[in-house]
Design goal:
By secondary structure, the protein is an alpha/beta fold. It contains 19 helices and 23 strands. It folds into 3 domains: 171 residues, Dimethylsulfoxide Reductase, domain 2, CATH 3.40.228.10; 97 residues, no CATH class; 113 residues, Beta Barrel (Barwin-like endoglucanases). The protein has a 6-stranded mixed barrel. The protein has a 5-stranded parallel beta sheet with strand order 3-2-1-5-6, with helices on both faces. It is globular, with a radius of gyration of 24 Å.
Length: 528
C-alpha cells in the first residue's frame, strides 16, 4: 500500500475495485465504513454484488476481465470534463500525452459494450473519484489474477496520478495483501529475481555486497516463478522441492498438471503446520511452529514491520521456520548458526536500506513502516510525498485486451473464483477449526436463479462443472450475487478444487500470475 490503513478513514472518496473487502479484509472494511460515517463517498466495482456494494454511492458490476476498459473509460470522462489535476500532472508525472491519446477512443458507449457498465454510472464514478479528494483506491486479487494483471495495476496507478491522488495523505493506490506476511516475504527476497529489499540478483554490486556478508559466492541467475516450476518438474529439469507454508495442490492454477508434475519430483519436502493436501504427497514433512509459538517479525499490507512474540511453547517436535531452515542449510554444507530471530533481523537490516533504521527495540508494540532508512527516522506512513522513487510518476498508455478464455457454445458460462468470509485461502487452518468450518462445511458454486431455472437446477442440487481442463462435482447455491451467465466458486475446499477448472497456461506475460478470475465452463445437473 502506498498509504496506511488508518488513513482510509480520512479519505473523501474510496474506490474499491476487485476486492471483496468485508469477506477478505474485514478490519480494513471497518475503516471504509467509518469513512462513510464521516461523509466519504464510496465507489465499488466488482463483477459480483458483494456486501460492500450495498453501502456504496455507486456500485457497478463490470464483466469479468474488463477492468482496463472500465478504468480507461473513467479517465476519458475525467479528461473530457477537465477534472484532472493539471498542475500535479505537469510537475510530478511524465507520459501524459500518450495516455491522453490512448484514452480518446474509450467513449462511454465503447466502454459499455466491453464492460456492461451504463454510461450514466461510468460518469458518476468518474465525477466522484475526480472531484472528491483525497481519494483512496483499494484493490485485491480481483485486479491481479488475470492475464492482464500488470495492465490492471498500471491502469489503477494512471487513474490515481491523473487526479493527483498519489503522494498525499488518505489517498494512494492500495493493494490489499492476501495473507498476513505476503509483503514481508517479498521484502525479504521471496521472489525469484531479487534479494532482500528488492535488490536485483543481476546487479553485480548487490551480489558482491551479499556474497561478502554471507561468506559465499552467489549466483546472478534469476530463479523460476511458480508457474514456471510446473513445466520444469514435468520435463525433469526440477528434481527436488521444499515447500514452506503453501498448499499448491489447491492454490496453483491446474490441478491435473500439478499432480503429474509432483510425481516427477525425485524428492518433495513440505514444511507445514498441518497435513495439507500437498503435505500428504510429500516424501518428508517438517513440523513447523505456528505464529503463536515463535518470535520474529511480520510486515503487513501497509508496509508495517511488527514483532510477533511467542505465547506458548511449540508442540511436539515442531520448530520455528528459521530454525528448520538453519538446520537444513547446515546439513547441506553451509553453516547457519544464528542465535535467534533478532540476530537474523539485525543482519537483514544492515543489508536492506528500507529497513536499516529498524531494530527490535524500536519496533516496540506498534512497529514501523518502511522506508525507515536510519535510527532517527520515524517510518513512512505514505509513499511518494514529495517525489516518486523514480523521479517522476510514469503514465502507461494501456490498451484493453480480452481475457485468455471467453465463453462459447461449448462452454457458455463465465467462471470466477475467490474467497468467502469464514475460510482462509486453501482452508489448511480454518477448515480444522470447528467454529469456522461450521459456517460453511462444503464447497459450492453460486449460480443466478434465472440460469438455474433454465437448467432445472434447484438449491443444493449436485452439478458437474467442466472446462477444457477437467470436471468436478459441486452443490449449487442459487444467488443473485452473481450475474446471469456467471458462476462463482470459492477456493477453500479440497473436495471441490477450483484448479481442476482454471487455466494454467493463461498467465500475465510479465508477472506470470495465473488467470484465476476468468475461465469458461459448462454446467450439467447430476443424474441420480
Amino acid at each position: 500500500m502506498t498509504n496506511s490503513i488508518a488513513e482510509i478513514e480520512d479519505a473523501s472518496c474510496i474506490f474499491v475495485i476487485g476486492s471483496n473487502t468485508t469477506a477478505c479484509h474485514p478490519l480494513i472494511a471497518r475503516r471504509i465504513y467509518r469513512a462513510k460515517e464521516k461523509g466519504a463517498r464510496l465507489i465499488v466495482a466488482d463483477p459480483r454484488n458483494i456486501q460492500l456494494s450495498r453501502f456504496a454511492d455507486i456500485a457497478v458490476r463490470q464483466r469479468l476481465g474488463s477492468d482496463v476498459a472500465l478504468l480507461n473509460g473513467m479517465m476519458h470522462l475525467i479528461i473530457k470534463n477537465g477534472w484532472q489535476d493539471a498542475e500535479y500532472i505537469a510537475r510530478r508525472t511524465e507520459g501524459y500525452e500518450a495516455l491522453e491519446k490512448r484514452l480518446r477512443s474509450y467513449t462511454p458507449d465503447r466502454v459499455q459494450a466491453i464492460t456492461g457498465v451504463a454510461p450514466d454510472d461510468l460518469a458518476r464514478m468518474a465525477e466522484l473519484y475526480a472531484t472528491r479528494r483525497p481519494a483512496s483506491l483499494l484493490y485485491a486479487m480481483g485486479i491481479t489474477q488475470h492475464t492482464t494483471g500488470v495492465d490492471n495495476v498500471k491502469s489503477c496507478c494512471n487513474l490515481a496520478m491523473l487526479c493527483g491522488n498519489v503522494g498525499v495523505y488518505a489517498g494512494g493506490v492500495n493493494p490489499l495483501r492476501g495473507q498476513n506476511n505476503v509483503q514481508g516475504a517479498c521484502d525479504m527476497g521471496g521472489l525469484p529475481d531479487v534479494l532482500p529489499g528488492y535488490q536485483k540478483v543481476s546487479d553485480p554490486e548487490v551480489l558482491e555486497k551479499f556474497s561478502e556478508a554471507w561468506g559465499c559466492k552467489l549466483s546472478s541467475w534469476a530463479g523460476m516463478t511458480i508457474t514456471d516450476m510446473i513445466p520444469a518438474m514435468q520435463a525433469g529439469k526440477l528434481k527436488g522441492m521444499l515447500i514452506i507454508g503453501e498448499n499448491p495442490k489447491l492454490s496453483d492454477p491446474d490441478w491435473n498438471h500439478l499432480a503429474h508434475a509432483l510425481k516427477n519430483l525425485e524428492f518433495l519436502v513440505v514444511q507445514e503446520l498441518f497435513l495439507s493436501e500437498t503435505a500428504q504427497v510429500a516424501d518428508v514433512v517438517l513440523a513447523a511452529a505456528s505464529s503463536a509459538e515463535k518470535d520474529g517479525t511480520f510486515t503487513n499490507t501497509e508496509r508495517r514491520c511488527m514483532r510477533i512474540r511467542r505465547a506458548v511453547e511449540p508442540i511436539g517436535n515442531s520448530l520455528p521456520d528459521w530454525e528448520i531452515i538453519c538446520r537444513l542449510s547446515t546439513a547441506m554444507g553451509y553453516e547457519m548458526n544464528y542465535g535467534g530471530p533478532e540476530e537474523i533481523f539485525d543482519e537483514m537490516t544492515s543489508l536492506t536500506k528500507s529497513y536499516q533504521g529498524m531494530s527490535y527495540r524500536r519496533l516496540g508494540i506498534d512497529g514501523l513502516q518502511w522506508p525507515c532508512p536510519d535510527a532517527e527516522h520515524p517510518g513512512t506512513p505514505y509513499l511518494h510525498k514529495d517525489r516518486f522513487t523514480r523521479g517522476k510518476g510514469k503514465f502507461h498508455a494501456i490498451e484493453y485486451r480480452d481475457p485468455a478464455e471467453l465463453p462459447d457454445e461449448d462452454y457458455p458460462f463465465y467462471l470466477t473464483t475467490g474467497r468467502m468470509f469464514a475460510h482462509f485461502h486453501t482452508g489448511t487452518m480454518t477448515r480444522i477449526s470447528p467454529h469456522l468450518d461450521v459456517e460453511q462445511t462444503t464447497g459450492y458454486v453460486s449460480i443466478h436463479p434465472d440460469d438455474a431455472r433454465a437448467l432445472d437446477i434447484h438449491d443444493g442440487d449436485m452439478l458437474v462443472l467442466s472446462s477444457r481442463r477437467g470436471s468436478m462435482e459441486v452443490p449449487a447455491r442459487l444467488s443473485r450475487s452473481v450475474e446471469r451467465g456467471t458462476l462463482f466458486l470459492p477456493i477453500h475446499f479440497g473436495e471441490s478444487p477450483t484448479n481442476v477448472l482454471t487455466n494454467a497456461e493463461a498467465v500475465d506475460p510479465l508477472a506470470k500470475i495465473p488467470e484465476f478470475k476468468v475461465s469458461a465452463v459448462k454446467v450439467a445437473k447430476m443424474v441420480a
